[in-house]
C-alpha cells in the first residue's frame, strides 16, 4: 500500500514538473507573440486588447469565487502598489522587446530571483548568509555583463528591460506580503490596472488591427492566463524547491524562439551574462533549500 501511495505521489510530482515546463513554454510563446506585435502596434493598444483576452480566462474564476472576493482584499495600499508594478513590468517588457532580442530581455528577467533575495532581506526581514550575498553580487556582475559595459548600457531599451525586471521582482516580494489574497483576485486587479493604463497610453496611438492581429493580441491574454494556471497547478503537485529552478528554461525558449521567428542570435556577452545569472540564481535556490523551504511565490508566475 505504501509503495502504491509512493508511486502515485511520484506520478503527481512528474505531472507537476511537466505542467511547469508547459507553462514556461507558453509564457515564452506569449513573449515571442508580443515581440511580433509591438513592431506594428503601440504598447498601450496591446495592453488594452491583451487585458480583454485575460478577462476571458479570469471571468469564470471570478464568477466561481464570487464578486465580493474582489473587494475583500488585505492591505489595500500594497495591493495598489502591486498593480502599478505589474503594469510597469508588462509595459516595460513590451517596450524592451520592441528593440532588443527576446534572449537579451529575458536575461534581465532571469535575474529576478537574485533581486528577490536582496530585496527580501530588507523588506521582509529574511536573513540571508554571506554565501547568498556573494551569489547576489555575482548575479549583479552577470547583469552588468549582459548590459554590455559601454554607452549601450544607457540605451533606453536596456533601461526598459532592467527596470521591468526590477518591477517584476518587487511583485514577487509583494506576493509574499499578500499571500492571503487568492490568485484570481490578484490577477483580476492587475488586469484592470493594465487595461486602464493601456487606454491612457493608446490615446492618439490606436491603429485598426486586422482580424489576425486582433486575435493575436487577445491570445496574449489567453495564453498568459493559461500559463499562469498551469504553473499554479504545478505548484500544488510538486515542491517549489524542485520547480523554481525550472523557470530558467524560459531563457532557453527565448533563444530558440528568437532565432526561429526573428533570426536573433545571442552575442557572447549575453551568453556569458546569462550563464553567470543562472548559476547565481541556482545557487541561491540551493542555499534556500538547505536553510529552509522555498516559498511557492519564488517561482515566476507573472508572465508577460
From TrEMBL:
It holds the Pfam family EamA. The keyword rRNA processing does not apply. This is Putative transmembrane transporter. Residues 15-147, 158-284 form the EamA domain. It comes from Rhizobium freirei PRF 81. SUPFAM superfamilies: Multidrug resistance efflux transporter EmrE. The chain crosses the membrane at residues 12-30, 36-59, 80-100, 106-125, 132-148, 154-174, 186-204, 210-230, 242-262, 268-286. InterPro entries: EamA_dom, EmrE-like. GO terms for cellular component: membrane. The keyword Transmembrane helix applies. Keywords: Membrane, Transmembrane, Transmembrane helix.
Amino acid at each position: 500500500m505504501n509503495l502504491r501511495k509512493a508511486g502515485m505521489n511520484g506520478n503527481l510530482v512528474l505531472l507537476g514538473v511537466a505542467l511547469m515546463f508547459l507553462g514556461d513554454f507558453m509564457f515564452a510563446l506569449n513573449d515571442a507573440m508580443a515581440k511580433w506585435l509591438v513592431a506594428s502596434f503601440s504598447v498601450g493598444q496591446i495592453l488594452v486588447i491583451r487585458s480583454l483576452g485575460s478577462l476571458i480566462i479570469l471571468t469564470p474564476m471570478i464568477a466561481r469565487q464570487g464578486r465580493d472576493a474582489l473587494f475583500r482584499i488585505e492591505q489595500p495600499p500594497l495591493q495598489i502598489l502591486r498593480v502599478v508594478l505589474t503594469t510597469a513590468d508588462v509595459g516595460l517588457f513590451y517596450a524592451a522587446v520592441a528593440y532588443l532580442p527576446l534572449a537579451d530581455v529575458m536575461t534581465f528577467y532571469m535575474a529576478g530571483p537574485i533581486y528577490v533575495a536582496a530585496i527580501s532581506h530588507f523588506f521582509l526581514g529574511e536573513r540571508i548568509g554571506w554565501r547568498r550575498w556573494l551569489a547576489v553580487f555575482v548575479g549583479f556582475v552577470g547583469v552588468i555583463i549582459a548590459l554590455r559595459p559601454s554607452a549601450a548600457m544607457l540605451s533606453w531599451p536596456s533601461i526598459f528591460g532592467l527596470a521591468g525586471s526590477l518591477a517584476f521582482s518587487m511583485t514577487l516580494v509583494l506576493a509574499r506580503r499578500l499571500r492571503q489574497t487568492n490568485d484570481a483576485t490578484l490577477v483580476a486587479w492587475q488586469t484592470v490596472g493594465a487595461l486602464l493604463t493601456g487606454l491612457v497610453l493608446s490615446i492618439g496611438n490606436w491603429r485598426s488591427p486586422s482580424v489576425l492581429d486582433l486575435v493575436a493580441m487577445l491570445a496574449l491574454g489567453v495564453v498568459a492566463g493559461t500559463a499562469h494556471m498551469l504553473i499554479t497547478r504545478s505548484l500544488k503537485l510538486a515542491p517549489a524547491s524542485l520547480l523554481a529552478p525550472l523557470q530558467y528554461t524560459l531563457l532557453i525558449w527565448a533563444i530558440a524562439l528568437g532565432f526561429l521567428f526573428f533570426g536573433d542570435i545571442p552575442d557572447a556577452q549575453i551568453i556569458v551574462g546569462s550563464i553567470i545569472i543562472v548559476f547565481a540564481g541556482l545557487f541561491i535556490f540551493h542555499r534556500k533549500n538547505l536553510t529552509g523551504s522555498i516559498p511557492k511565490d519564488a517561482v515566476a508566475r507573472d508572465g508577460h
